[in-house]
Write a structure and sequence with these properties.
The structure holds 2 protein chains of 2 kinds. Chain A is an alpha/beta fold. Chain A is built from 8 helices and 9 strands. In chain A, the strands form 2 sheets. A 6-stranded mixed sheet of chain A has the order 5-6-7-3-8-9, with helices on both faces. By secondary structure, chain B is mainly α. Chain B has 10 helices and no strands. The longest helix of chain B is centred in the C-terminal third of the chain and has 38 residues, at 156-193. Classes of the chains: A alpha/beta, B mainly alpha. At the A-B interface, strand 5 and helix 3 of A face helix 7 and helix 8 of B.
Chain lengths: 249, 247
Amino acid sequence: MNTAITIQNLKKQFGGVEIFQNFHAKIEEGEITTVFGPNGSGKSTLLNILSGIIPKDSGNIHIKNFDLSKFSYIFQNYRDSLLPWRTNFENVALPLQLRGRTKDEINKEINELQKIFRISFGWNSYPYELSGGQQQILAFMRALITRPEILFIDEPFSALDYENNLMLRNSLQKYHQKYRPTIILITHNIEEAIHLGKNILVLSKKPTTVIKTIDNTTTYPRTADFLKMRDFHLTKEKILSIFQKTLAI
Amino acid sequence: MKKNIILGPAIILILWAVVAKLQLIDPFFLPDPATTIKKIVALIMSRTIEIDIIATLLRVGTAFGISLLIGLPLGLLFGTSENIYRSFEFIIDFFRSTPATALFPLFLLIFGIADTSKIAATCFSATLIIIFNTAHGTMRAKQSRLRMIRSMGATRFQIFYTILFWESLPQTFVGLRNALSTSLIVVIITEMFIGTTHGLGKLIIDSQITYEIKTMYAIILLTGTIGYLLNLLFLGLEKNLLHWADK
């Protein structure tokens, strides 16, 4: 496996509470790695440390060929991260506008993305006029318009209804199949973790370590039918037993 | 309850009419609303008041404009750097609580008895209100939005014009409306006490001195109406510009 991100012996404390201790992980290049763990296990903190928003206490993090312009982060609270004073178009265009790209270039990129994401809103309306699902699509498109090589996604589906959730999982897979970025996707939902992840990191409670990395070799695209298949259920059982052991449920 | 803009003024007018009718206050010192409104109409019809309205509005407009030009950039600057704001916080809060009207002698000394000192005193009050509100609006920018824009590698200047400026606007507008009413009040007071040839404040003090009580109330009511209309103008602007606020 080609490793895009290596984390060695990561340590982080917050107000005397040990969040990460001897945290080791490897993230495979060009694949989707899902991170599954209990609430409060520091999943979001992990992404924030990796992206440099929060400093680490000690340990080594190596990201292959890291370049901020080839990196995107989709935050958990899409409502807050979209800018309500900008139209839908201006929101998606934002990262490219910051880089001084022309409107024609931006339009071209948006058209490319529209082949993957189904849009049912006007580009000249505002995010607050959209439903939660549509807002999340907007946040996804804004992050993907730069064609990132590394993409961090924090709980992207947690605020969506099941239909929108499945639709967005589908679009994300399509995008990944086409552009092959390295993706770390955080979730507390076991179904999402198995549905999307080629590798699934199962985290412990605080102080957090990776209990196990599970390979999930089912080929993409994984439709909703995958959720009914034996492979899915076997993987789910495997994760559940690991989880039960560590959490003593 | 359904919105009803007539209700508030109606209650005041009815209370006023009752107090006047029952003669709870000597009618010489509190004429009834009908007489006062008739007086306003007469004043406006005679057109002699136009020059005073224009004089007052010009002072308010000039003072508000200058305060905006000074206060907005300073507020934004203070808001973008908490350290700068903390360094100036004492001065802002100290002078915000100091009545500009009490400092008239100082303003007269520095700017003379012409319009300049009236406008300077007004600017003093209005600018501080604008700085305070704009700075606080900027400082309250959502952290999640700042994290988002930083993760895109935006420069400080880009962060300012894509996020901070916009985040400040709702609170800035609260400040602007506040500064506008304060400007009107301070201009009227300066006209009353520093003296001038024309202005609503001068008319109020003149009618007080000559016991033209009806005229005095008529002009006070007129001033309030002007203040209300200015506020309405700003609300309209706000509704258009800040359609996204609180969403």
